[in-house]
Each structure stands twice: as C-alpha cells, then as structure tokens.
Design goal:
5 domains, 28% strand, six-stranded mixed beta sheet, 946 residues, TIM Barrel, Rossmann fold, alpha+beta, Trefoil (Acidic Fibroblast Growth Factor, subunit A)
Length: 946
C-alpha cells in the first residue's frame, strides 16, 4: 500500500456519493496517468496515494491460476444442478477465497472474469465446460446466482466485481479471432443477448468481456451493441475489459483497421475501458492511445469516460475506504464449509440418464469392479485452481464400499517402445528430492509440467512399460510407471515430468505414425518427431526414431480380468479437459473415443451388470441400448469421486438435470459456424429430431407425481401453480420445469421454451405447491417487420413436467397482444438483415461502426425472403443500396424475376462504398418479396416507390 494522502481530498471523503468522489479523483489525474489506467495493469499514482490495479482474475469454478484453492465442479456441472441458491453459495465461497488469497498475495485480483454466459448452442464447442446451458433462461438464472455470490450482499461495497464472458455469440474455437458469427435480429434478441441482459439487469454484474470473434462482420471489440444494448440495461457504470490480445487482433489477424491507433481509438469509443494486451507491458497500449489522442482520433473526455468506469468498480470494491470495507479482512479459505459445499455441488450435479433395470443404487455388499481411463483420475481444466484435496471415483468407492469389495483396472494399453537398435525407450530413475509438492502434499501440475531438472528418456536393454491411452483421432498420451506423463519442455528433451496433460500448448500429446516396419512418434505440441541418441530422447527436425510398438497387455484384457467376478462393473469414461475440446480447440465428434468404446464393450461382454459413468465437459453420443444404467457428471472438482460414489450407493438420490440437449449422432448437428438457431433448428428450442437425451432430463431414485395445475393472468404476468408429490420411498430432490409454447404462431417459434424452474427436496409422501410468476414479456418475440418486441394474441400452452419432453401437466391460456400487420415497405423499405427466411446468406457490417448488410455466405449466391410486404396502391420502382460486385434479382411470391439491380466495384472501392441502384417494377397488394444475391455483392437496404 502506498502512503496515504490527507483525508481532506474529496475523493477520500466517504460521506460523498461515489460519483462525486470519482469526478474529483479524475480531475486530479494527468492525461498520461489516465491513459496508463487503460491497460490491464494500471500503475499506482503515488502522489495521490492511489494503488496499482489489475483487471482480471479467473474464478470460473474457484480461484484459478493463483495456486491452491477450493475447486468446485465445472461451470456446466453447476448448470446441471439447476439450483440457483447452491450456485449463489458457490459464488460466495469463491469470492471469499479470492479476498483471503489477496490478503496473502496482492497479485490476486478482485475484478473477477466470470461467469461465462455464452450459450451452449453447439456441443462440439471446445469451451462447452465453461458455460451453464444451451437455454438463455437457465443460463441467466445460474449466472445471476453466481454473480450475486461473487458480489456479496453489502449494499455499498462489493466482495469481488464479476465480469461476464464473452460478449457475444461466441461458440467456436476454430479460427475464433477471424470468424464472424452471422446472427439474424431474432436470434440476436431472443437468444444471444438474452442471457447477458437478464444477468446484467439483476444488478450484480460489474461489466463484460468482448469475445475474440466477429459478429455480423464486425469485431466484438468495436461492437455498437455495447452502446445500443448493454449500457441501456442498467444505470451502473459497467466496465468492459478486452480479452487477452484482442486489441492487437483488430489489426494483426482481423485486418479490420490499418493501424493500431485507429483500432484502439475505435475500441475505446465503442465502449472498451480496459485493454488486456502484451501481458504486464503497458507501453504498447499507452503509446497507441497517446497516438490516437495526438492525431485527433480520441479526445480527453473519451479517455475520461473509460477511466471513470474503471474507477467506479474500484470504489465499489472498497479500495478507497479500506477501514470501512466489510470484506477487507475476509480470511475464509479452504474451510470445512467450503469443502462440504464443493461436495454438495458435485453431488447435485450428477445426472442419472438411465436406470432401466433398477441396477442403481448399489447394495452395501455389492462387489464392484471399477474400470476406465478416468476411474482413478481427478482432472483439472484450464480454469481450475490447484487442488488442495482430491477424490477420484476409485477412491470414493474404496471409501464408501471398502477396498476389499472393489477391484480396479484402468484399462490402458501397456506397451514398450523398441528402437531400431533393439533397445527400449526407458525412464531413468529420478531422485526422491525431485518431486515437487504443493499444499498439504498435493502434486502441483503447474510445477511438474515440462520440468527440466529430471533426466530425459534414454534406452535400456530391459525396457520400461508405458501406459498408452488413445484419446481419439490418433491423439495419445504415454505415462511412465511412476505415474508421470511424457512431456517435452523448451529444451526439446522428452521426460516423464508431468502430473497431467496441461498448459496453453499441451506438451504431453503424441501421434504414432506408421513408417516402414514400425512407427514414428510425433510430438503434437512441437510437430516434431522423437529421436533417440546416447544423451537421451528429444524431439528434433531430423533423424526420427522408428519404434516397434509392443503391447504387453491390452486395456480390454485388463478390464476382462477384473470384471467377470464382480457383481457390478462401473466403467468411468470421458475426456481429459486439455485434449480434444478446450479453449483454442473444438471437438471433432460427439462419439466416445474408440479406445474407451473397446473398454466398454469388454466390460459389457464380461458382465452385463455394467454401469457407465461419464465424467466429461460435454455431451457424448453413446449407444446405451445394452447398458442398464448410465450417469453423467462434469469434472466435479475436488470432491468428484466422493460425490459419484455416494450417488451410486444411494446415499444421495441423483437430481441433476441436463443443461443441454444430448444428440444421438454428429449428423444431428449443424455446422459449428451456423449461429442461426431458428433457421437450422438448433437446441431443444427448435430441434425436430429425436435426441439421445432431451434438455432438462434426469432420473431419480424416487418417483414424483404432478397435479393441480392452475393459471391466473394479470396485466403483466401469468401466475402458474401446481403440486409435486414424492411418491417414492426415499427422500429426494425434484427439478420441476415450466415451459410455454405458442400454439398457432405466424412465425417460427420454439417447440417449447423454459420460463421457470424450481429444485425442491421432498421426503417420501411429502407434497408441495410450487408457484411461478411468469412475466408476459416471456411470450414476446422480436418482430423484424417492426424492429421491436411483440406478443401475438391467441392461445399458448403452459407445460409443467420433469424435462422438456417429460410433460406431466398442460393447459392453454389465451393472451392479448398485438396482431401481425403487413410490412409498410413504401414507408420503411426493407433493411436487408430483417429477413424472415434466408438461404446461403451471411450478415456483414454495413459500416465499421454501425448497421448490418447481407452478402452470399461463400461469395456465390444466396436468397432472402421477406413475408407480407404491403405495396398498398402499387409501386413502380425498386431501389437497392449495394456495394461490391454482383447483382440482386427481385421477384414476388417466388415467381419470375421482375428486376435486376447490378453493382460494379472499382479497383479501389471499399466494401462500405454503397451506391443506390434503381429498376422498374410493378407490384401492389400484400406480397412476399424474394431477393436472390449473385456474386460477392453487399445489400444494405431495399426501397420501393410509386
């Protein structure tokens, strides 16, 4: 802490409102000091006694990257609890640990970058683990609960300041910094904006982080939506923090601007207040801001606006009132309460997908064979903290059933790698002192990965067995007998030095490539092959070693050996969070890796009483026809194994519910970059196929009946109530879900849409009445003809049940609204992006700062349809604002082409140089307008005149 100035300065006077104090401090800062505040690492201003400040502390499911902390289930697992109060408590625990850790280490920041509220639209998205749900209502409910916990409940001072990630329409890692999400207005308002809006309106959010991608051709970091939407949802000063490196991407990879000064100025004017770029080196950003100011691209008031928003967060965090900050001395860290909460969260996240033979729960005297690649693993992901405690499924089953009743086989292939010289790849013995341990003796993977103080692999006449796991698509890991993974550090040496695969670039994955009479071993992280010399193994450009792969024991044989004599087999399968699906890498398929499929088949063949427990960051498409029982949980943090064992034993009746649709096959999925959930019928809202398991699905060890559905409509809400009774013989939670559906809509509407839910705990025979107030605005849709929300009058179904497909009660209500009307095209024309239907078209930026246009997605051809256009007494001409090369063909009701408007771009033309073209056309009455776009033309607007 720097020396404090006398308390007479107004910004130190806590009797004044924050706004006046911020104005006073802002007035005392020089221009250079204010510019310096715009970088992620804002320096101290010692002459005013102002400390340095860092935006950004990862806290997605516990405090991340700062050492040991309580690790809760992944975000998708928290979403699977459908329990907002539990998630609020998790957020509260995380924020307390953030404060406690900051008391020991001032590198820990209080501006936390979480939660992620991107919707889980596509299950192949690599960061599926970071979101809560595919549904905007459930996502916003869980996100609001988490932010409230992070914020704390003090009326003035916040415990931490949460920033929502990632604004906006971000669901692909493939080329994420250069791809554009084409988001039509209805999808924008009804889907992508909605989760952010309801969370921001709840009042516990400090700001947002724009995503790397572009939306409608414009980078999120210069999005007008920050001004047009985000900042209209609250009176609070929201802080917008850039994602890491994204400011430079505007020039370096996206080529959206010619200079970094232009890009930085455009970002700041769009609403970005803190620039995360070049790590702790602020010199490049400050030079860019200064250059933009000196050339007139920015004014000092522009800079003041951004600094004011940052200071607003700092004042709310109590930085300038340390003696009055109620959170300043929070020391709650790794408390018994936090450990119990981590276990409860893991237990509540478990989803029982199938239990057809009543195999579960397991009797206390059951003999269990537990097998699988994740059976003795407690996996961490990129945004995990370092484990203080850990519990694997095997350890949980040992603890619950007794080690004498549990047998284990990991199911890995045990192999030897024989060199062309006849020797075997070998792990030299390490000194006992080489082992690095973290808190309470836990191995610290951040310290172990890529270590260079261990001896590199060499050759030995006897050889060493390695555990080989193929994670799918030919990506494999190799593990030494001491449990460490083969890894490659900066020096290129191959060592058994990593506790788990990890790192921004994973250094523990390899490929076996057939070569001559053996295999080359390629290291994926460097792209180089493994070579072997007298001084050990390394990756190199030349002289790759040809290995003979010798299988000592297959994983299937190991599984068969322990499963045949068990009463029940528990196969624990799933993913490693750093392989095939993570930040920077989308998943290739829904299928379970073939290695794990083989283990599952071997277990089922040996013992039909096989339970599959999937522990994964995302859904899988699994053939469960021959399986009597199937469960899923996300990577559940430090208590995952204990939680799973207690559910299998029946100590806890499972009540997790799927937060996203589980599809049966890859063919059910649209292209990863197709963001039109309406047009391509994505998520449970629109999907018309048969899912493997539907949104909201989850079974229980109890049974529940629903009854007494009643509704009552007021001026602004629909009151719905019904009763739920536990008709089973064990206490259990039920997640009652309420959906609505427009019965006879004039535009495509969701098949059903979640509007409320409640997780309740009931004893056997207990009955409770649940009541919900559903705002009538929940029935609205975005009317592209009006550019506004509208509720159609007519019948709506109200559906209550246990999932989106398990509807137990239904009734119909008649609601008032505004009837549809033809588009007044003579007065308003047609904005190109306000189509009703499209094929082969992408939305792009009309200008760099605002507006939308459309263009053929592949630069070839596309079609737009605008329904019910009213030409009134008749028109004689059509005009179109066009840029680029190509043509627009105009027809009515799908008939013959009536007019063609052509655009020809000059050699130096900008895509934003629009020209207005005119053609004669005769039309009257109410007609559907069809526009076919030919070639790389941009269409911004179409008008009609008499």
């Amino acid at each position: 802490m720097t020396a404090q100035t006398p308390p007479t300065l107004p910004f130190r006077d806590r009797r004044l409102p924050f706004a006046k104090r911020i104005d006073d401090l802002l007035s005392r800062l020089t221009l250079d000091e204010k510019i310096a505040f715009l970088h992620q690492f804002a320096p101290a201003v010692e002459r005013l006694g102002v400390d340095g400040f860092r935006t950004g502390q990862e806290a997605l499911h516990g405090v991340a990257w700062m050492g040991p902390a309580t690790v809760f289930p992944q975000a998708v697992g928290l979403g699977a609890t459908w329990n907002t109060e539990l998630v609020r408590q998790v957020g509260e625990a995380v924020s307390k640990e953030t404060r406690a850790m900051r008391a020991r280490d001032d590198r820990v920041g209080l501006n936390v970058w979480s939660p992620t509220v991107n919707l889980l639209r596509h299950p192949l998205w690599g960061r599926n683990e970071e979101g809560y749900s595919e549904d905007p209502k459930l996502t916003s409910a869980i996100a609001t609960a988490y932010t409230r916990g992070l914020r704390g409940d003090h009326p003035t001072y916040w415990r931490t300041a949460p920033v929502l990630k990632h604004w906006l329409a971000h669901n692909n890692e493939t080329d994420r910094s250069v791809t554009s999400s084409s988001v039509r207005p209805r999808v924008l308002h009804e889907y992508d904006l909605r989760a952010f809006r309801e969370t921001v309106e709840a009042g516990a959010t400090a700001g947002v982080m724009p995503a790397y991608n572009l939306v409608n051709g414009r980078p999120n970091h210069v999005s007008p939506y920050l001004r047009e939407h985000l900042r209209t949802w609250t009176d609070e000063e929201l802080l917008v923090c850039s994602d890491a490196g994204a400011p430079s991407n505007l020039v370096d990879s996206e080529h959206y601007f010619d200079t970094h000064e232009e890009a930085t100025a455009a970002s700041l004017l769009a609403g970005v207040d803190s620039f995360t770029d070049h790590g702790t080196d602020s010199s490049k950003i400050t030079a860019r801001v200064r250059g933009a100011f000196d050339t007139g691209l920015l004014t000092e008031p522009d800079i003041d606006t951004a600094v004011r928003r940052q200071l607003s967060v700092r004042f709310r965090l109590g930085e300038f009132d340390p003696e009055y900050d109620p959170h300043a001395h929070t020391l709650d860290f790794d408390t018994p309460a936090h450990r119990a909460l981590a276990q409860e969260a893991a237990e509540q996240s478990v989803v029982l997908l199938k239990n057809s033979a009543g195999l579960l729960p397991l009797a206390p005297d059951t003999r269990i064979a537990v097998v699988g690649l994740l059976a003795d693993e407690c996996k961490l992901d990129w945004y995990s903290g370092t484990l203080i405690h850990r519990s694997t499924p095997l350890e949980g089953l040992y603890e619950r059933f007794g080690a004498e009743r549990v047998e284990f086989a990991e199911g890995v292939d045990r192999v030897r790698l024989k060199t062309s010289a006849g020797a075997f790849l070998h792990v030299p013995e390490a000194n006992a002192d080489d082992e690095v341990r973290g808190a309470e003796g836990a191995l610290d993977p951040a310290l172990l990965a890529g270590r260079t103080d261990l001896p590199p692999l060499t050759t030995d006449p006897v050889g060493t067995e390695f555990a080989l796991v193929d994670w799918g698509e030919g990506v494999l890991t190799l593990r030494a007998p001491d449990g460490r993974y083969l890894s490659v550090a900066d020096d290129g040496r191959v060592r058994a030095s990593a506790d788990q695969p990890g790192g921004w670039v994973v250094q523990e994955t390899f490929r076996l490539e057939p070569h001559e009479n053996g295999h080359l071993l390629r290291h994926i992280g460097t792209g180089r092959h493994v070579s072997v010399a007298a001084d050990g193994a390394r990756v190199a450009e030349a002289d790759p070693e040809t290995f003979q792969l010798m299988v000592v024991e297959s994983g299937e044989d190991a599984v068969t050996r322990v499963t045949a004599r068990a009463d029940v087999v528990v196969v624990v399968a799933g993913n490693d969070p750093h392989i095939h699906g993570r930040e920077t890498e989308d998943r290739p398929t829904l299928r379970l890796p073939e290695h794990q499929e083989r283990l599952l088949r071997a277990a089922r063949a040996a013992n039909p009483n096989t339970v599959l427990a999937l522990v994964s960051a995302y859904p899988y498409a699994v053939d469960h026809a021959a399986l009597p029982a199937l469960l899923w949980m996300s990577h559940g943090g430090q208590a995952a194994g204990t939680a799973l064992a207690r559910v299998l034993a029946g100590d806890v009746s499972p009540a997790g519910r799927l937060p996203q649709t589980w599809y049966a096959d890859d063919s059910d999925l649209p292209d990863l970059l197709d963001y039109d959930v309406i047009g391509s019928r994505q998520t449970y809202l629109y999907f018309e196929g048969t899912p493997l398991f539907p949104f909201g699905h989850g079974l229980s060890y109890a049974a529940f009946s629903y009854a007494d559905l009643t509704t009552r409509t007021t001026d602004d809400s629909l009151h719905v109530s019904f009763t739920v009774t536990n008709t089973g013989d064990v206490p259990a939670d039920e997640v009652a879900q309420l959906y609505t559906r427009a019965v006879d809509p004039t535009v495509p509407r969701p098949r059903r849409e979640l509007v409320a839910h409640s997780r309740v705990r009931l004893a056997p025979g207990e009955r409770t009445e649940l009541g919900f107030e559903v705002p009538l605005s929940s029935f609205d849709f975005w009317d592209v003809a009006r550019g506004a929300w509208r509720r159609e009058p007519g019948p709506y179904e109200v559906l209550a049940g246990a999932s989106s497909e398990d509807v137990r009660l239904r009734t119909t209500v008649i609601l008032d609204g505004e009837a549809s009307a033809p588009r007044p095209v003579l007065r308003r024309g047609l904005d190109a992006a306000d189509f009703d239907e499209q094929s082969g078209v992408a939305i792009v930026d009309r200008t760099r700062t605002a507006g939308d246009a459309v263009t053929p997605a592949q630069g070839r051809s596309g079609e737009l349809v605008y329904r019910d256009c009213d030409f009134e007494g008749g028109v004689a001409a059509v005009t179109a604002a066009l840029s680029g090369d190509g043509a627009v063909e105009v027809s009515l009701d799908g008939g013959a082409v009536l007019a063609v408007l052509t655009s020809e771009a000059g050699d130096d033309a900008s895509p934003y140089d629009y020209v207005t073209k005119r053609a004669e056309i005769i039309a009257e009455g109410v007609r559907d307008v069809h526009l076919k776009l030919r070639g790389p033309v941009r269409l911004a607007h179409v008008g009609f005149s008499g």
